[in-house]
Design a protein that fits this description.
single chain, about 270 residues
């Protein structure tokens, strides 16, 4: 079974693929998040995996926008612990480092460590990709922040471990498909909606869930990108969309919103 993810071999997205699907899966790397969505949309692969939030740096906004654009479902979630290490070419020592390459999220997760050493920052498209860059360019004053697996794959040297500012560093990934998952009795549902522009509307939306004893696990707003200062809301709640109370809540939302999109229901892991 083939599953796409963003990044190079050794990226945390690849780890998410193996953690969710098991060792018999074939992870297919993509350079951009949108490529992952496109591959599932076009049936090149049955599933893709994309990050949606990090426990330290927060949301991956590009993927929130992609879920609005693409008519795909969420059929699962998986959390991956990020154990960042500092990686260099074999020819250099720690004191030779002047520049750090990595994905902006990883840079943000290690910001205190980077600032402590007064290193310059060069953002890269991927953590494992940053290791590939410093190896291919034979950069002898640069290091990359990535996983230990990336260091092993590219045969590079690890000069420091556990460099994240917070040891409790996890990224939540969502699994893409054309269909969501069947009820398990312990599920989560993700939706996007745009509330009517009137006093109390968001309160009324939330009350539809509270009155039915439905627990909300996340709510996030993003600009609509069509009208200035208007927003779409991304909301996760406990329960499957086919459960009676959840179905009633979703139907009740229609009188409070101008738009609603059900991304899907899936087994709750987090």
């Amino acid at each position: 079974m083939k599953v796409t993810y963003q990044g190079e071999i050794g990226a945390y997205g690849e780890m998410a693929v193996y953690k969710f699907f098991g060792n018999k899966v074939e992870p297919i790397p993509c350079k951009d998040f949108r490529d992952v969505f496109e591959s599932v949309k076009n049936n090149t692969v049955p599933n893709g995996v994309v990050p949606i939030e990090n426990s330290i740096e927060g949301s991956v906004n590009q993927n929130y926008d992609n879920f609005l654009i693409y008519d795909l479902k969420v059929c699962g979630e998986v959390a991956v612990k990020l154990a960042h290490v500092l990686i260099t070419n074999h020819e250099i020592n720690f004191e030779d480092i002047q520049t750090i390459y990595s994905h902006p999220q990883a840079i943000g997760q290690c910001r205190n460590y980077i600032e402590k050493h007064k290193w310059e920052i060069v953002p890269a498209y991927d953590t494992a990709g940053s290791v590939k860059i410093i190896k291919e360019k034979q950069l002898l004053t640069a290091a990359a922040i990535a996983s230990e697996k990336a260091a092993d794959f590219y045969n590079m040297k690890i000069v420091a471990r556990d460099i994240a500012d917070n040891p409790s560093n996890y990224t939540r990934f969502l699994v893409l498909s054309h269909d969501d998952a069947a009820p398990t009795g312990d599920d989560k549902t993700s939706i996007i909606f745009s509330a009517k522009h009137a006093p109390g509307t968001l309160y009324n939306v939330l009350e539809e869930f509270a009155s039915r004893n439905i627990n909300l696990t996340r709510i996030e707003s993003r600009p609509t990108k069509t009208t200035a200062w208007q927003y779409n809301f991304y909301l996760d709640f406990e329960g499957h969309r086919t459960e009676k109370r959840c179905t009633e809540a979703l139907q009740a939302l229609e009188k409070h919103v101008t738009f609603i999109k059900i991304l899907g229901s899936y087994p709750r892991i987090i």
